[in-house]
Amino acid sequence: MSYRLQVDEPLADGVPRVVCEQLDRALAELNDRDTEFAEAVHQVRKRCKKIRGLLRLVRGSLSASYRRENAWFRDLARRLSGPRDAQAMLESFDQLREAFSGDLGPGAFAGVREALAERRSDVHDGDELAERVADTVEVLQAARMRVLGWRLDDQGFAALQRGLSRTYRRARKAQRASYAIPTAEQFHEWRKRVKYHWYHLRLLRELWPVPMKGFAAQARQLADLLGDDHDLAVLQETLKRDTETLGDAGQLETLAGLARRRQDQLRAEAWAVGWRLFADKPRDFCQRLHHYWQAAQRDAARAAGLSGPGC
């Protein structure tokens, strides 16, 4: 199954099922000899984030398990961050150069790109990465057994409401903070909150598939815009810090200026998408999804030949 909860499945079964599916796919990717280590590591990091998104959704019903498990998957992803950071830096550079291709000559900043590509190769080809992958396989296998023992204190929409509301509220608040004090840190914080909101919309898609798919697409678009903004912020910091190894100081300053211009464009787009995505107040948003939940439960009961609201 894809990354979503089913309306006709008890949450006590659905939550561990979704997590185990992500863990099984991560293990398959790490054990696939046809997949490069760096790509496999990237996929594992994404699956850790998806699991943390689900944890945040049911945080009010996991009691003490939430903090422990959230920290565990967070730390695992952090241990695997090196290869992805190097790849993201190169991708950000290429996207920036493409965005201003009409103003730049062919092969512009070639020396900078060569230096960034060399950094990526050094990280991807090291023996340390292979050791990390082997260790990750072991800990993921142990995590799968642990997940099967998770217990939820609540069922139904009550198990979701606290996490759903808190994530939405924090994302909405982070948008305002980002434009009030437009620092890289503020926008990065907003990005994290938007991504968790996106995961929640994906998990709850079956409540009303067509509208929820549309909401999720908008959240993904916003997360991508903010992700590109963050990568450009990291690129600027690298250009500022590593002038001796990346090239001519004048070229690096020009490149940093282009990065700032591109960030202005991305942030203008993000504002428009975010204003629509987070137009509802948190209470209204949760109430609307609760109504979707109730309708979906009634439809599932009818399909099963049962009676009653089921919520």
Number of strands: 0
Rg to the nearest angstrom? 22 Å
CATH superfamily: CHAD domain
Order of SSEs: HHHHHHHHHHHHH
Helix run count: 13
Unreliable spans are none
Question: How far is the N terminus from the C terminus?
Answer: 23 Å
Give the overall average pLDDT: 91
Profile the largest sheet.
Answer: none
Percent strand? under 5%
**How many structural domains are formed by the residues?**
1
Quaternary organisation:
single chain
CATH class: Mainly Alpha
- By CATH, the topology is CHAD domain
Using the 3D structure, state the CATH architecture: Alpha solenoid
Query: What form results from the Cα inertia axes?
Result: globular
Helical coverage, percent range? over 70%
Structural class: mainly alpha
Descriptive report:
This protein is mostly helical and 311 residues long. It has a single domain (11-303), classed as CHAD domain, CATH 1.40.20. Helix content is 80%, strand content 0%. The protein has 13 helices and no strands. Helix 5 crosses helix 10 (209-241). The longest helix is centred in the C-terminal third of the chain and has 33 residues, at 209-241. The protein starts with 10 loop residues before the first helix and ends in an 8-residue tail after the last helix.
